[in-house]
């Protein structure tokens, strides 16, 4: 069974930014020619995450508000006491971003049927940077049969 | 390696309703005859979700209260300003349901060992409709060896 | 395609305790000799969970505070009315632990590339006991090619 991977790059924006990466996943799927199988989507940073949901711009703003309510940046966090940790000079104070990441997903597996992602009508694969701006990567792995 | 899928249907109730779909997954597993492998369970709507936990009726009520506390239906959400979006006439105001969905899971992978789901003693695969009542579907994909 | 599993054991501490199980996963991977594929990590209890994030001790304390804020142990939960349920004598009052578990993950899939876990630089696979102390198990399944 072929198992093929690809790393995609995303340049993100300040604070929380959300990207619909379904087109890149779909393009990779077409390149592989796999007809029946799975795509593993894997977020490779501790302050990024995934969700599979509706790519509607106003909803994406609601999600940002929601995440900031759950894990406010201005709360006291032990991880942000940088003087008590051994860290590089440019270490960000981003405990809230880690907490948001753990609330969302790191790995998602999407089925492939007849050469297409078997997503529901309104579903997109969304990539979240929770501590931007940065250059980020997402790992894709497709396995299945031709 | 065989990769076999099945779509199951669930008729849901008003608001949040939760269904133990383990029996349907198990029945599908027995039909395939796979002895060693995985079941991918995939929620196909943006206001449904999955969790693997205890199917205890009082706990399921607690989960509903918990989700409503995290994402109250009565909060202001941009996604609910239907007059600012291009939507069908019967579009629901369901931003809270999307947020609940992203807090739970869209894809879960359950191992298969000796022809059985390798769930822990108290674990069931739970399907959540967060914006019912509707007819919903869940995608199952089994891969492995006989 | 080989599909090989292993169950690892973790002895946990009072309340919430968090363990970096990446070394055990990596050791299992080396034992299998798989070069290209996936590890499925599966939490087998309804009050344990997984997250893939940074194994930094102060952050792990922040996560505990965060989970206790989302689902306080002292809130009223129907699941904790033990006199209304048929339960063993030593049944714990742990509704909050179930809610925390559903907020985190039960299944995570980590890609394997060139014989190594394709985790990002700061990522570790973290196992949470949310209702310790207990003897717990985590299920690992590796599939792929040599």
Automatic annotation (TrEMBL), chains A, B, C:
<protein>
    <submittedName>
        <fullName>Secondary thiamine-phosphate synthase enzyme YjbQ</fullName>
    </submittedName>
</protein>
<dbReference type="InterPro" id="IPR035917">
    <property type="entry name" value="YjbQ-like_sf"/>
</dbReference>
<dbReference type="Pfam" id="PF01894">
    <property type="entry name" value="YjbQ"/>
</dbReference>
<dbReference type="InterPro" id="IPR001602">
    <property type="entry name" value="UPF0047_YjbQ-like"/>
</dbReference>
């Amino acid at each position: 069974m072929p198992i093929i991977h690809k790393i995609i790059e995303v340049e993100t924006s300040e604070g929380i930014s959300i990207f619909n990466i379904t087109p890149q996943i779909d393009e990779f799927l077409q390149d592989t020619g796999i007809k029946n199988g799975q795509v593993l989507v894997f977020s490779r940073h501790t302050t990024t995450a995934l969700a599979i949901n509706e790519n509607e711009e106003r909803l994406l703003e609601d999600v940002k508000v929601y995440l900031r309510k759950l894990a406010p940046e201005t709360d006291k966090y032990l991880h942000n006491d940088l003087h008590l940790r051994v860290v590089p000079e440019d270490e960000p104070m981003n405990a809230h971003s880690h907490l948001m990441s753990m609330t969302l997903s790191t790995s998602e597996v999407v089925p492939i049927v007849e050469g297409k992602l078997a997503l529901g009508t309104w579903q997109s694969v969304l990539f979240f940077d929770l501590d931007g701006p940065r250059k980020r990567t997402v790992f894709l792995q497709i396995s299945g049969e031709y």
